[in-house]
Structures are given as C-alpha cells and as structure tokens.
Design a protein that fits this description.
2 copies of one chain form a homodimer. Chain A contains 10 helices and 7 strands. With 231 residues, chain A is α/β, with parallel strands linked by helices. Chain A has 2 domains: 160 residues, 3-Layer(aba) Sandwich (Rossmann fold); 49 residues, Winged helix-like DNA-binding domain superfamily/Winged helix DNA-binding domain (Arc Repressor Mutant, subunit A, Orthogonal Bundle). A 5-stranded parallel beta sheet of chain A has the order 2-1-3-4-5, with helices on both faces. In chain A, strands 6-7 form a two-stranded parallel ribbon. In chain A, strand 4, helix 4 and strand 5 form a beta-alpha-beta unit. The N and C termini of chain A lie far apart (35 Å). The C terminus of chain A is likely disordered. Chains A and B meet through helix 1 of A and helix 1 of B. Chain A binds a DNA duplex (30 and 30 nucleotides) through helix 6 and helix 8.
Chain lengths: 231, 231
DNA sequence: GAGAAGGGTGAGCCCCACCTCACCCGTGTC
DNA sequence: GACACGGGTGAGGTGGGGCTCACCCTTCTC
C-alpha cells in the first residue's frame, strides 16, 4: 500500500452543536484532515476551488434548492459530497444521490457510520443509509421536495425518455407527465430534461447501518432500483 | 457571592453527532459539571434519583409522550429540564413549558445560547427561544402533538375551567370542548383536568436568541400570553 | 408544416387532518 | 334526581396537498 495521505474534508456550516460534534469526530481520526469548517453554502464553490477537498459534508437542510447538489458535483467532480439531513426519507436520499451526492445520511447517524461514509465516498462509492424512514415524513429543507409521483418521473426524464414513453411506462396520460415534468423543472431550477441528464457520480453502492461494518458491494442492479444508472 | 459550586448537568441520549457537540460544549465550561451522559429516556428517573442534577437536557424527539416531561418535573422538581427539539414551533414550546420544562430550544441553537439557557434554567428561569418557526411545520416527535385548537383548550382545562366556560370563551359548543378535552387527555396520558393542573415550574420568562445576550426580564403578562400562569 | 417540448392556467378528484357537533354510556357530587 | 365530567363512536364540513387531465400559448427541430 502506498504512502497514506490523509483524506481532506471540508465541513459546511451546520447547527452549532452538531457542527462541534462533527468537527471533533473528524479531527480525531488520523486518516482525515479537515481543510475547512463552517463553510456557508454560498461559499462552497470558492472553498472547493481553493482546497479541492476529497470530501465535503453538507447540510441538506441548508440547501436552497436540491439542484445545488447537482451544480456542485458538475463543477467539482473531484469532491465527493456527503449530505446530512434530518431523518431523510428513501425518496429524498434517492433524489440527492441522483443529483450526484455520494452519500445521504441522517443527522442521527452513528459517528462510526459517518466515518465509514467519508472513507467510502472518497473511494467513489455511493452510500445509502439502511435505516431511512419509510415514505411519509416530509423533512429535509421541507420546501421544494419532489412528490412521490414526481420522483418516479424524474429518473425517466434524466435518461431522456419522451413524455409519451413516460406516460406509457407510468400508465397515465401525456398531459399528466407534462404536468409532473413542469413541477420537477420548477422545483429543481432547470428548464429541460437535458439539464437534468448531467453525469451524476458513478460508483458502487454501499449500504451502511448500525448492525455492523459495511457489507459486501451490492450488485449494480440496486443502483438501478432507485433510479436508472444514467444515460 | 458565596463559593461557586458548579451546576450539575445530566445529558440524555442524543443523536451521536449532536451528543458529542453538546458534551464537549458543556464540559468545556468551568461552571458546569456533567454528571451523566447518554442517558436513555427510560433511565431518566433513576439518574435523577441518583445524582439529583441541577439541570437535565433532554431530546424532545425521544419523548414517547409529552406527558413524560410533566411526570419528570413533578417527581423531581429540583431538576430543571431543557428540551432540545428539531426546530420547534411556538405551540410546541408552549406545550413543553406548560408541562414544567424550563426551556425549549431548537437543536440549531447557538452554543452560547445553550449555555445561557442552562444557567438561566438553574436559576429557575424559564427560557423561550426567540426564533421559533411560526406555526406550520409539524416536527418534534411528530406524534401525539396537540393541534392548534387543543392547545387553546389545554390552558383553560389546566386552570380548572368548566367545559361550559371553555365553550363560551372559545365560542363553540360544549360538545366540541368535550371532544377536544378527550383528545388532550388521550394524547397526554391523563384522565382528568385535575391531573393537568399540577404545579408547573414557576419563574420568570426569558427570551434568548442570536442578537445578543439575554435581555431584561419580561413582564409576567408574557407568561400568561401563551397559557395562564397556573391555578 | 408536423411533432415534441416547455410554460401557464385551471378543473376535478381523492385523501387526510382538523374542527365541530351529536349521540350513547357510566360515575361522582351536590 | 340533576348536573358535570369522563369515555366511546360517528357524522358532517373545511382546507390543503397531491394526482390526473385538459386547454391555451411559444419555441425548436426535422
């Protein structure tokens, strides 16, 4: 194994108490190096430019739009994003990962799993929490979240399906698909399916959770279960 | 001023990251002494009995029933309770304080304000966050929260008003009041207005927030604004 | 020009939470 | 016995969010 250089981590601004815990956790791990803390989300591009951190941990609740994740991953593909949200639901995580995030974790995640996620993300693996709340429970930033139906339409738009094809797949009318698409565009701040089709981070998917250490890699089919693997 | 003995603080179990931050914050304050950490809510009575801490900081999200707060404050009046919730609403905080909690703070509260709240609570002051989310946003444990109307009925029940009097005050029928009362009893785990009328913690109300240090004491009328000041 | 997309508006429907009220019953108090 | 209270059940009404679909328009591409 070559010389171990520490993984550089940038920390966004979090709630004060959680930020303290997060910083202390990461600084106490010899394999990790904090290069920035309490970075306001508006300053993330600058910090990414200056430090090119391997991993950045962001507050999903501080995202004004989910599309921010998308923009960051496109602009700075070398920096893997880990999103911390308030008990995120499965679909919320799916949306964040579809936009290029490398991990989506609840703020109640065990410290050990947070560290695991950092190492996994730095190796270009994507991390999905095991114990996400089922479906109900609108959390995250609360606003501008895709509905269940919109979340079904999104991946089909991302892979370039036509409205008619989507309508056929979902067994609804074309007009309905167009309505969902409009809603998605508005919420995500884009104006066409082409803008949605950017290259999300690739990589295997791992699942972490309290029971123990990360398991074996999951088959690629699991990536496609939540949303298609890309155009 | 007499010899300064540190204020003893018990910490309930929190999300791992937040718990780290909270513990580190409090342990770094020379005026505070942590006597217990990561206390499961089921073990709170035991810990209160053993250490009789001046202040205990609890996770509002871990409360099975809001009535737990009430029971703890009645059983252990010497221990002041500080509740941390996920962006609590005004009515949530009002309910918690009505049940004897000394403070209700968001988990995004500034460290400085958390320390302030501990000191204020230990001096039998009640602390209300300044920047609470308006009305919408069901957070907290999510379940068994009083509705807006129930929250209006509760204080009137607590001061022993009859159903007819409440009906008159709220301009609704007696049957409606009885329905609200039933709902309140069920959610709070009590079975009469007498059980609701127990002695909540008394004390002045302070408001804390980011702008600066705590202001002057608020007039008692402010206590009565959210709910009557007791029988 | 035809067809697909994107953008705006609005309608109808369903589900759910909340509010309101009306019954039923039993108990305790005066 | 009259009355208030607690407990159970259910019926309406209302409001919001989501899903579905139907129009209207412009733009772009082939």
């Amino acid at each position: 194994m070559p010389l171990k250089t520490p993984i550089t981590v940038a920390l966004a601004r979090f709630e004060d108490l959680l930020g303290r815990g997060l910083r202390q956790l990461i600084e106490s791990d010899p394999g990790l190096e904090v290069v920035a803390t309490e970075v306001d989300h508006s300053r993330l591009p600058v910090v990414f430019q200056a430090h090119a951190p391997d991993v950045a941990i962001l507050d999903a609740g501080a995202l004004a739009r989910l599309a921010e994740v998308r923009e960051l991953t496109i602009e700075h593909p070398a920096t893997k994003l880990i999103l911390l949200a308030n008990s995120p639901s499965m679909s919320e995580c799916a949306q964040l990962l579809a936009f290029g995030a490398s991990a989506c974790l609840g703020k109640d995640t065990q410290s050990r799993d947070v560290l695991n996620a950092i190492y996994l993300a730095s190796r270009n693996l994507r991390v999905f929490p095991r114990a996400v709340s089922a479906e109900p429970g609108p959390s995250l930033s609360g606003q501008e979240l895709l509905t269940r139906r919109e979340a079904e339409v999104l991946p089909l738009l991302q892979i370039g399906r036509s409205n008619a094809q989507i309508a056929l797949a979902l067994q609804v009318g074309v007009e309905t698909v167009r309505t969902h698409a409009r809603s998605i565009y508005r919420k995500l701040g884009v104006s066409s399916r082409r803008e949605l089709a950017g290259p999300p981070a690739r990589g295997l998917l791992r699942e972490i959770g309290s029971p123990g250490l990360p398991q074996q890699d999951l088959p690629p089919s699991l990536i496609a279960r939540g949303w298609p693997a890309g155009a």
